[in-house]
Write a structure and sequence with these properties.
About 80% of the residues lie in helices and about 0% in strands. By secondary structure, it is mainly α. The protein starts with 7 loop residues before the first helix and ends with a helix.
């Protein structure tokens, strides 16, 4: 007997095919390679993302890709800047005290991604929680309230916030790298 429900790996392939028209319109070759990387990053977490229980397959695919990017950016940022970050728990306590809407957004997001959070290994779970805390922490109360009020589309809006978070980290890495290069050139 055949399966009537595709595996999550097959859903990733189907989604990638669904987006192939978009990929064809990307002008430079490196954009097409980056497009493929998004789906390859999601495949790294296939067994975990299948536990996310999201009805729209692109949501867990994007979460997997953004999480992999966050991990890579965090590693690069720490290498460049030698940053000692507070733990997610300390940041969460600050959110609870100072930003109640932001804390509510964090709680709702964790609830929506409950299956993924509890499927990940401990280290990755802590990194994912850190990514969510950092993202929520970067929002002001008004933006957090808007995201909470637009509950049905919270995932899309939250993904946008995660992309902004990654972009900010990229900018910090660029600035740190430029400073290091200037120091080397001066010496």
């Amino acid at each position: 007997m055949g399966r009537s429900i595709p595996s999550f790996r097959q859903l990733i392939e189907i989604e990638q095919l669904n987006w192939s028209g978009f990929k064809k319109e990307l002008p430079p070759k490196n954009d097409k390679e980056a497009f493929n990387t998004i789906f390859e990053n999601a495949k790294l977490y296939t067994q975990y993302l299948s536990n996310a229980n999201r009805p729209i397959p692109i949501e867990p695919i994007m979460m997997g890709a953004l999480f992999q990017n966050y991990k890579m950016l965090l590693k690069l940022y720490k290498e460049v800047d030698n940053v000692n970050e507070e733990s997610a728990k300390q940041k969460l306590v600050l959110l609870e005290r100072e930003k109640p809407f932001t804390k509510t957004l964090f709680d709702k997001t964790c609830e929506r991604w409950h299956g993924l959070l509890y499927a990940l290994h401990r280290d990755d779970r802590e990194r994912l929680l850190m990514m969510l805390v950092d993202c929520c922490n970067s929002l002001d109360e008004g933006a957090a309230k808007m995201l909470i009020d637009k509950d049905p589309s919270i995932s899309v809006l939250f993904f946008f916030c995660l992309v902004l978070q990654n972009q900010k980290m990229i900018e910090r890495i660029k600035k740190s790298t430029e400073k290091n290069i200037k120091k080397i050139l001066i010496c």
